[in-house]
Amino acid sequence: RDTTMTDRLKPTAFSTINRVGNYNWSVCGKVTRRWKLREREYCDGRVFNIAISDASGGSSIVIRIFFYNEWAEPCSFIEVGDTIKLTNIRVECNPAHTDNNSEYAYILVVKDDSELVVLQDTSNDTPGEVPMEMVLTKSTLENPKFRVAK
């Protein structure tokens, strides 16, 4: 297995996400849930979102990531079980969070200068398949960078 692919996905603890704003933080996690690509509810545009679990093992936090407008459709290939790393994020308060539910208090939003790395490893599901890494930035949304482990 090509270790450089997984080395790029070193986890960052979600517990550092504790305030609203724009940050060059990186988060890494395994996709636990995905929502379908859809029209935004309160303004023009489209949205795709996922939930990821903390890959650092430091917490049981699950956090939602939103891909708006030009990011939405190109990122909608992400599946449950994929591992992602997202760098340069905007942190917002989660409107679904209350003291009475398990929703995390913050959500992550992809920005113009974000970088998304997606590692799809289907080798457990399909013997003989090799892991594939995709790197997306705003400038490569239409033609993302792909790498296949040998």
How large a portion of the residues is in β-strands, by DSSP E? over 45%
Individual helix count: 2
What does the largest sheet look like? 5 strands, mixed, barrel
**Widest beta sheet: strand line-up:** 1-3-4-6-5
Oligomer: single chain
Fraction in helix: under 10%
Query: What is the number of E strands?
Result: 8
Any idea what the radius of gyration is?
15 Å
H/E series: HEEEEHEEEE
Secondary structure category: mainly beta
Question: Can you offer a commentary on this structure?
Answer:
6% of the residues lie in helices and 45% in strands. By secondary structure, it is mainly beta. The chain has a five-stranded mixed barrel with strand order 1-3-4-6-5. A hairpin with a 7-residue loop joins strand 3 and strand 4 (62-68). Mean pLDDT is 83; it is low at 1-9.
Descriptive key words:
150 residues, mainly beta, five-stranded mixed beta barrel, 2 helices, globular
